[in-house]
Amino acid sequence: QVQLVESGGGLAQPGGSLKLSCGASGFTFSMSTMRWYRQAPGKERELVAAIDRVGSSTNYAETVKGRFTISRDNANDTVYLQMNSLKPEDTAVYYCNTNLGSSRYPRNYWGQGTQVTVSS
Length: 120
Fold this sequence. Notes:
By secondary structure, the chain is mainly beta. Helix content is 0%, strand content 49%. The chain is built from no helices and eleven strands. The protein has strands at 3-7, 10-12, 18-25, 34-39, 46-51, 58-60, 68-73, 78-83, 92-99, 108-110, 114-118. Strands 2, 4, 5, 6, 9, 10 and 11 form a seven-stranded mixed β-sheet that branches. The chain has a four-stranded antiparallel β-sheet with strand order 1-3-8-7, with no helix packed on it. The radius of gyration is 14 Å and the shape is globular. The termini are far apart. The mean pLDDT is 96.
């Protein structure tokens, strides 16, 4: 079965860094676009970053561009989110995501989420 398991969340100081990992299993990881979303209290879930199957194309939300970097290691079925220059407004639950279906038959999968808290 498809599984996505996030790790690496925790508490960071403003201006600090964290690196999130998402281990994938149950599907052909190297053929799938991977994404990171986040959801803060009282706000809608938003797309943070996306990376194509070979890592040649990436997209970022304007709020994190220049501070966050998404990458993947297809040999180990893992996608990462390096977060630098953290701000209090980055506080949220971060989710790993992939869509294995099509526009006609979407099959969206999510990890359990990992909490990131940025506070002094």
